[in-house]
Write a structure and sequence with these properties.
heterodimer; A: mainly alpha; 0% strand; B: alpha+beta; Alpha-Beta Plaits; 4-stranded antiparallel beta sheet; 4 strands
Chain lengths: 484, 197
C-alpha cells in the first residue's frame, strides 16, 4: 500500500480504515500538492485533450445548427418514435450528474470522510453533465427561439400559463433548480480555495483573476462559521433535491400510458441507475486526473474502492429492478406489457440493445464483489466505461423499445439515428470535456481546505504523533492534554 | 485618514491556537479576528462568537418558496385561467408537489447564499485586508487590535508566551475591508489589565 505505512506502524491500528491522505504531509504540503498544477504550464496531453474536446464541441454546434436550420426532420424521429437519441442522451447525462451531488451532499450528511478527496471534481462533473443534459430538450424543441414558452411568465395570450400538471414542466423546474443549487454549492466551496491560490499568486494577472473569483475571502472565523452552516444546509437541501430530480425525470415516462413506461418502480429504479452511472463517470475522470496531476496520495485506492462498492450496490439494485419489471410484465397479465418486455425488448429487432444493457449493468459489475478487483485501477477504469455504455443502453431500451412497437401494428417502425443526432451527442462530449479540461487546469481539483480539515484525524502523517501517545501511560496522556 | 493598529500573531498549529485564544481573551486583549486556512471547529466558541442564524434565514426563504409556488399555481388553475386538461381537477394538489418542492429548495439555497455573501461582505471584485498571505495556506493568524490602553511590546511578548511563531505589527487603514465583526460580537470577557501591573 502506501509508502508511509512501511515506515511506521502502530500497535493498535485499524485495519478497516485506511488513511484518507497518504504520505507524510503538513498543511503547506497539501496546498503545494494541489495548487501547484494550477501555477505550472499545462502539459502536451492537456493541449491535445482540449483540442479534441473543442473539435467535438464545434462538430456538435454544426450538427445542432443543421438541425435548427432544416428542422427536427433531419433527425430520424418519426410518428412512432418521437423520442430517440435526444431524450436518451438527456436522461443519461442527468443521471451522470447525480453522483456528484451524492458525494458532496449525501456523504456529507452521513459524515463519510472519504468524500473530501473526490467531492470537488465530482461536483464539477455534475455541473458539466447537467449543462450537457439541458441541451437535448432545448434543441429538441425545434423552434428553439420559442424556448422561453416553458416559463410561466405573464404574456399577451390571456395570459396563458404553462401546464403545472405536466411532468415535462416539472422537469424544467427540477433541472434548472438542480443546476443552480449544484453551482452554488460548488462555488461556495471553491471560495476559500480560490483565496489560497490568490494569496500565493506570483503573477499580477493570477492575483487579479483569483482575487475576483475568491470574492475577497479571508478565512475569518466568523465567515468559516457561516460557511459551515451554509454547507450543511445546502447539503441537506441537495439530498432530497437529487432524489427528486431523477424521480421527476422518471415521471416523464411513468405518468404516461405507454407499456414499459407506465410503472411505479421507475423513481427508485432511475435514481439507483443515475448514481450507478454517475459513479462510473467519476471513476473514469478521477483515474485519469489523479494520474496526470499526481494526486494519487489524495485520491487513494481507498477512494476508488469505496466508489466501486457504491457501483456494485447500485448496479445490483438496477438489476433487481430489471427482473422486477420482467416479473410484473408477466404477473400483471396485461398483454401489452407482456409483449413489450418479452417480445419487443428481450427479443425483436432491437433486442440486441436489451442484452447489451443486461451484460454491462447487471452481470459485469459483479466483479466488484472481489476486493482485488475493486482495488485494481485498470479493471475499475474498464468497468467504468462498460457501466456507462450499459446505462446509455438502459435509457435507449426504455425509450425506443417501448415506442417502436405501437398499439397499432401498422405504425410499427424501426429506429436508427441520423448523423445530426450522433453529432449532437458527440458535441455534448466536447462540451463536457472542454469544461472538465479547463476545470482541471484552472481550479483546485481537490477541496484544499477540506483536506486540511481531515488531515489530522485521517492523514497518514499524524500517525507519527499517535506513536508517541501510544507509548505513554493513560495518566501522562491526560496530564498532557489538560496542560494543552 | 483613520488607521487601526494591530499586533498580528501567527500560529502553526490549531492545538496551540486554542489555548492561546483563551489566554489572550482572559488577559483582556481584544481579538480583532482569527484567520484560518480551514474551518477550525470550536474556535468560534473559544472566541465567544455567537451562533450564526443563517439556518433560520434558510428556513424562512424555504417556506417563502413553498408558499410562492403553491399559491401561484393554485391561483393560475383556479382563478386566473381554469383550464380543462383532460377533465382533471382544477386544484390537483399532488401534481403541484414537485414544483412546490423544487421552488422551496431553490429559494432557500439562493437566499442563503446571497445572505451569506451579504453578511460576510463577499462579492466579485471585493478586496479585503489580508493580514498574512499564508493565512489561507498553513498559518492561523490572530490579529489583536491595539487601543490606547495596550502597549504593542506587551502584546507581542504575551503572544510569544502563548506560542505564536511569528509576531509583527501592522497599521491598516480603517474600513469595511477589515470586517465588521467588532460591531456584532463583543469579544471582551474581562476588563483590560496591563500584564505587568
Amino acid at each position: 500500500m502506501s509508502k508511509a505505512q512501511n515506515t511506521m506502524h502502530l500497535k493498535y491500528e485499524s485495519t478497516l480504515r485506511e488513511p484518507l491522505v497518504d504520505g507524510v504531509k503538513d498543511y503547506h504540503q497539501v496546498t503545494e500538492d494541489i495548487i501547484s498544477p494550477i501555477e505550472a504550464k499545462p502539459g502536451k496531453l492537456w493541449y491535445i485533450g482540449l483540442f479534441i474536446s473543442v473539435a467535438l464541441l464545434l462538430f456538435g454546434v454544426f450538427s445542432v445548427t443543421w438541425e435548427v436550420y432544416w428542422g427536427t426532420g433531419v433527425w430520424n424521429l418519426n410518428k412512432t418514435i418521437g423520442w430517440g437519441w435526444d431524450i436518451t442522451n438527456f436522461v443519461w447525462w442527468v443521471g451522470i450528474g447525480h453522483a456528484g451531488t451524492l458525494i458532496s451532499a449525501i456523504l456529507l450528511l452521513f459524515r463519510q470522510g472519504w468524500r473530501t478527496g473526490v467531492n470537488r471534481a465530482a461536483e464539477a462533473m455534475t455541473i458539466f453533465a447537467v449543462m450537457c443534459a439541458g441541451q437535448f430538450p432545448i434543441w429538441h424543441m425545434g423552434r428553439v427561439w420559442m424556448a422561453f414558452f416553458v416559463l410561466p411568465y405573464p404574456n399577451t395570450r390571456g395570459p396563458l400559463w404553462v401546464n403545472f400538471n405536466s411532468p415535462l414542466l416539472w422537469d424544467v423546474f427540477a433541472i434548472s433548480t438542480y443546476f443552480t443549487v449544484s453551482l452554488l454549492f460548488w462555488y461556495s466551496g471553491l471560495l476559500p480555495d480560490f483565496a489560497t491560490v490568490r494569496d500565493r499568486a506570483r503573477t499580477k494577472l493570477r492575483k487579479l483573476l483569483y482575487g475576483i473569483a475568491s470574492f475577497g475571502w479571508t478565512g475569518s472565523t466568523k465567515h468559516w462559521q457561516r460557511h459551515e452552516a451554509l454547507s450543511l444546509v445546502l447539503a441537506g437541501l441537495s439530498t432530497p433535491l437529487v432524489l427528486s430530480v431523477h424521480t421527476i425525470v422518471s415521471f416523464d415516462f411513468a405518468t404516461s400510458v405507454i407499456p414499459g413506461w407506465h410503472t411505479t418502480i421507475f423513481p427508485p429504479y432511475f435514481v439507483a441507475g443515475a448514481i450507478f452511472s454517475g459513479f462510473a463517470m467519476v471513476q473514469t475522470l478521477l483515474i485519469i486526473t489523479r494520474k496526470i496531476l499526481n494526486l494519487e496520495e489524495y485520491i487513494t485506492l481507498g477512494h476508488i474502492e469505496a466508489m466501486n462498492k457504491v457501483i456494485v450496490l447500485t448496479g445490483s439494485i438496477v438489476g433487481v429492478a430489471y427482473l422486477t419489471e420482467l416479473f410484473m410484465a408477466w404477473y400483471s397479465g396485461v398483454n401489452y406489457e407482456f409483449d413489450t418486455f418479452y417480445k419487443f425488448r428481450a427479443a425483436g429487432p432491437l433486442g440486441w440493445s436489451y442484452w447489451i444493457m443486461m451484460t454491462c449493468n447487471v452481470i459485469s459489475p459483479q466483479v466488484f464483489w472481489f476486493r482485488k478487483m475493486r482495488r485494481n485501477i485498470m479493471v475499475t477504469f474498464i468497468m467504468s466505461i462498460i457501466v456507462n455504455i450499459g446505462m446509455w443502453f438502459e435509457r435507449f431500451v426504455i425509450i425506443c423499445t417501448s415506442l417502436y412497437r405501437d398499439y397499432l401494428p401498422s405504425s410499427w417502425s424501426y429506429y436508427r439515428p441520423a448523423w445530426p443526432e450522433v453529432g449532437f451527442y458527440l458535441g455534448t462530449f466536447g462540451l463536457f470535456f472542454t469544461c472538465y479540461f479547463l476545470f482541471a487546469k484552472y481550479f483546485p481539483v481537490i477541496a484544499v481546505a477540506e483536506i486540511k480539515h481531515v488531515l489530522k484525524t485521517s492523514g497518514e502523517s499524524f500517525k507519527e504523533k499517535m506513536v508517541k501517545y501510544e507509548d505513554q501511560d493513560a495518566d501522562q496522556f491526560a496530564h498532557d492534554q489538560a496542560h494543552h | 485618514m483613520a488607521v487601526k493598529k494591530f499586533v498580528v500573531g501567527c500560529f502553526d498549529d490549531e492545538a496551540v491556537l486554542f489555548p492561546a485564544v483563551k489566554k489572550v481573551r482572559s488577559a483582556g486583549y481584544k481579538i480583532h479576528d482569527v484567520y484560518t486556512p480551514f474551518p477550525v471547529h470550536g474556535l468560534d466558541h473559544a472566541m465567544g462568537l455567537r451562533e450564526t442564524s443563517l439556518h433560520t434565514a434558510g428556513f424562512i426563504y424555504g417556506i417563502t418558496g413553498t408558499t410562492t409556488a403553491l399559491s401561484f399555481m393554485s391561483w393560475v388553475f383556479t382563478t386566473d385561467w381554469p383550464m380543462n386538461i383532460g377533465g382533471k381537477p382544477h386544484f390537483p394538489l399532488p401534481a403541484f408537489i414537485p414544483i412546490t418542492f423544487e421552488l422551496t429548495v431553490l429559494f432557500s439555497a439562493v437566499g442563503m447564499v446571497l445572505t451569506f455573501c451579504y453578511l460576510c461582505q463577499l462579492a466579485p471584485f471585493v478586496k479585503k485586508h489580508v493580514f498574512h498571505p499564508r493565512q489561507s495556506d498553513d498559518l492561523f493568524v490572530m490579529a489583536i487590535e491595539l487601543t490606547d490602553k495596550t502597549r504593542p511590546e506587551e502584546v507581542k511578548a504575551f503572544l510569544d508566551s502563548v506560542g505564536a511563531k511569528e509576531i509583527h505589527e501592522q497599521t491598516v487603514e480603517a474600513g469595511w475591508w477589515l470586517g465588521r465583526f467588532d460591531k456584532e460580537d463583543k469579544l471582551f470577557s474581562q476588563p483590560v489589565q496591563p500584564l505587568n501591573a
